[in-house]
Amino acid sequence: MKRLILVVALVFLSGTMVQNWAQDNSDVNKRLNDLEKTVQSFRAGTHRFMLAGLAQTSFIKEEGAPSTIETAFEPIFLYRATDKILFEGEIEAEIEDGGQNLNLEYGQFIYIVNDYLTFGAGKFLNPANYFMERLHPAWINKMPDKPFFVHEETTIQAPTHIGFELRGAAPINSAKIEYAAFLGNGPVLNPNDGTVSFKNYGDNNSNKVIGGRVSFLPIPQMEIGYGLEVARTGDRDTPLRDVKAVNNAVDFTFTDEVPGLKGGIDVRAQAVWLTIDNPNMGALTFDNTSVGGYGQIAYHPYNANNNFFKNLEFVYRFDWSNQPDNAPNNLEMKRSGFGLNYWLTSSSELKFAYETNNITSPDGTVDDTENRFIAQVALGF
Q: Is the pLDDT assigned to residue 9 strictly greater than 60?
């Protein structure tokens, strides 16, 4: 490496002398030109690679259950081949629920078509699911866990898709509009209980999920979005092949600094409706609509005079999940969570939360309340 640096330095320091010596030698001139282009390309950073990511460790104590500790490391790989060709990928390595998992969170090729449109191909975070695409990383999510509608056991909206996407944004006077459209492997219907699986590693028919999201930002601090996904979910060559699932989602964001509060407020909400056709076959003879979502408000007094108080953040979140009344798993859950975060740096924090979950069933056979405490340390880099 030292020799390479020395050679390059000598070429530049003695450029005039070498050029005069080689002015009649076309082969040497060609090699010097190639060397100069290589050095300029290196200096311009035509090829760039960056490692980012996050890490988290959580302590969880649920009422009536043993306490447990979970941890995860999620490196993010970013690569720029040219100004228009990019790649992003994230690997998730986690220890939770008594096991160790290694997953591809996302990985996609990106081509920048123009200032208003990009093309992506691979596994990507669902553009119609605002929480998963923008807020789910531990150091960004203000609570130490995810809302019900994206939790693995109660999810009603796909967290990721495997396929192709188009997305972009455009100004409208002082406002802005964002848009995305995608096509990918669709959800798979379980004919025994009417649920669908969003682990779309493969598809059970040739019909693909089609969807997208459009949002409007009247001011930089506010965004209002709507997402839609449509797919046929039944197995090919079966009577359920035409059973369709439609997913609607609305989201709202408002963040701003409030001088009177010596800090900023952060308000977010998202609601999701998953409707699956009622084919009146076998066990699927009920109105199959699931609803879920969350609302959250946070206050961070980052302009306070006290150095300790200015690093605190106060969070309240309410989230819910309501399964179809006549479905085998027809529980209705409503959860309130209070969080207190302490920011160590701009991308690392300690989080503490206490949550109360009220669980009921339409027939009254289930009426329970679950409490739990979570402490988490999260780092983004």
A: no
